[in-house]
Amino acid sequence: MELSIGEMMMVALAIVVLFGPNKLPQIARDLGQGVRKMRGAMEDVKTEILKETDNPVSEIKREIDKVKKAAMDFNPMGDLEKEALAKRSEPKIDLSESDTHEGPVSR
Fold this sequence. Notes:
Helix content: over 70%
Distance between the termini: 104 Å
Number of strands: 0
Largest sheet: none
Radius of gyration: 41 Å
Number of helices: 3
Order of helices and strands: HHH
Shape: rod-shaped
Structural class: mainly alpha
């Protein structure tokens, strides 16, 4: 909403006629405070909207980062290597020295 100089003069003249020149400074102060409050309220609303719209985006980014980290940590060959090392470290039992081993049984 843009006002030309002529329109602003008409508004100023109407205010002076309606309220008188003595109340003009108080009206200007009140009008300035009202404008400041409106701007502050608009900034609060804007900030709140940005927080709400940014929140799901940041959650999605965090989930993507978690998936990337899990993909980087995933090493199926590492699991196989661990199993192979575990089998190597198990003590081998010599069945020929065992009294309980009967060997292959044929039927």
